[in-house]
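hi! just following up on the protien thing from before. the input was this:
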Amino acid sequence: MYTYPALLQLINQKITETSFGSNPKELYEPITYMMGLGGKRLRPVLTLMAADMFAADVNKALDAALAIEVFHNFTLVHDDIMDNAPLRRGKETVFQKWNMPVAILSGDLMLIRSIDLLAKTETNQFSKLLSVFNDTAAKVCEGQQIDMNFETLSKVTHDEYIHMISLKTAVLLGASLEIGARIAGASEVDAMHMYEFGKCIGIAFQIQDDILDSFGQTAAVGKRIGGDIASNKKTLLLIELLDSVHKDDLKLLQNLLAEPNDELKIEGVLALYDKYQIKAFAESQKQQYLDTAFHHLNEVSVSPERKQLLINTAHELMERVS
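and the predicted 3d structure came back as:
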């Protein structure tokens, strides 16, 4: 079986060898630039990992894996526009380096190219792969819109938040694994368990990000601690605090959310998080989704030895920084 670095090398080599087009250069250069920014390539690696787990030739899943990575990067190009983000992986975002119309058009073309790549997959299940891919793409867009809707809502429930991160983040991890499994000829039941495993890991992954934003170490996380608090982002932590806060602290919390000084806001909200044991709550929620994920993986009908890399990868995602 392969290692994560070996699968990552296959993906990076595939990206290097792939031409997305050249003329007009203003349209295609941003795609090459975006695809060259690097990263752990988690989603395409998961696709290859799933194929390898079912003892298939991972090269047969390479086009589909790259399709998923191109699609993921398409969403990042458009997300950066919506978030007005200046940097992505420490480099200028596409719309900053070129301009917004170019970024929109190049992003659109990345979506088209991702489907072209998926169509190159040698499989007798292409219609199913396309259905999974398109359904996932639609859900990611739905999740992004719901997340934006949250900005104008005074209250968001736990269930609404979990639904949003399931769509925006988790379903693509699930689909990455399901597509790899299907290319390898996995049964319908096993493919569904792989999807649910990835989806639950994705939810846990996002909850972990929420926790790290407030309780991580700045150097390890790679961004300022408390950014979500400063922007009043409705994370699982803030939603739980709003549900838990005693009436004696409610006015304090409301004042903190309106506080223009970010440092004072972050310090005050973190103190309330500690008082109401919000981190412990979020950790317990994360663990519930991890437990459910591993339940699904246990049900997959391959030997435990062939699941070990996926198990290790899931644990590393949860333990990547403290």
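Residues 256 and 264 are 8 Å apart (CA to CA).
The chain has a mean pLDDT of 95.
cheers
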